[in-house]
Amino acid sequence: MHAFRHGTTTTPTAVVVPPSLALPVIESAFPRQLHPYWPRLQEKTRLWLLEKRLMPADKVEEYADGLCYTDLMAGYYLGAPDEVLQAIADYSAWFFVWDDRHDRYVVHGRPDDWRRLRHRLHTALDAPRHHLHHPDPLVAGFADSVLRLYGFLPRTWNQRFARHFHAVIEAYDREFRNRTEGHVPGVEEYLALRRHTFAHWIWTDLLEPSAGCELPDSVRKDAAYRRAALLSQEFAAWYNDLCSLPKEIAGDEVHNLGISLITHENLTLEEAVDDVRRRVEECISEFLRVEQEALRFADGLDDGTVHGKELSAAVRACVGNMRNWFSSVYWFHHESGRYMVDTWDDRSTPPYVTNEAAGEK
Predict the structure, then answer these.
(1) Known catalytic residue at 96
(2) Active-site residue among 5, 32, 96, 148?
(3) Catalytic residue among 198, 235, 287, 297
(4) What is the pTM of this model?
(5) Catalytic residue among 30, 46, 95, 152
(6) Are 41 and 49 in contact (CB under 8 A)?
(7) Are 86 and 147 in contact (CB under 8 A)?
(8) Could you confirm whether 338 is annotated as catalytic?
(9) What is the chain's alpha carbon radius of gyration, rounded to the nearest angstrom?
(10) Is residue 95 flagged as an active site residue?
């Protein structure tokens, strides 16, 4: 399977998807799009990473574009105002850097450093303005990105976002303990935890500032809308697990759906791969069904009033971007240097991470 990635050069680069990971339905039924702001987005996020000292200058120069973090967001939040997409992209880049720091703390056995970071992130989430100049660049960068995100919609949205991210931080703490203790969670335990470590509801929350509208509870809790949102995120998390399974088994990892299936359901590696792939494909087929219900729900919100028309359009935009998440995630996994482990000199240490950037002394 081939695609052409959007690069900074005029010559497109062919992307080859291994047959075991290829999903023809994504390539045929989920056309890939990129926000027109993307080239500027890439440039500005690169500068933001430098300004906030989240990556060393040489690593930004060599790796930032190839990691494709901005491509992932520009392929998801179509229609977002430029400043909203920029804030989301910077936050997303921060999230990946945080994930790398978390991983380094696990690998190097640094529970005290993790505990301090966890506490600081909880505090910065509730009072970002007071943490803009924190000595830890990861905390200061988080405060900056969160404060910008808090500026687009009412306080009620901010509170919901904070509540959801507090849960993400705690899920990362649970993962830290699982990994340091060698505990492989059961399948249901893992699936519930993964919804937080993958930040399902954070990416879903961010659909709203992209659409320029905070959705009322009655809309967000509608069965079709909520199911479509969940399926788009489950697809992303499980496809990530499918792509990561071989390297995570090699690295004695404990956090992967396939590893939980092997450990607790007594599946072979081949059977686990088939099971995860089946779940991924079921997410796609069920989304295609539920998507139509969600769009009919959106149409029904247009009651002839200005508010009804605007709400209907916002919901349609959100559902449309749930669809975009499928193709954006799919191609990201085959373009980003984050997943090209076979090209790394040291398979246990990403080349774009340094000891300094990971909080080492």
Answers:
(1) yes
(2) 96
(3) 198
(4) 0.93
(5) 95
(6) no
(7) no
(8) yes
(9) 20
(10) yes
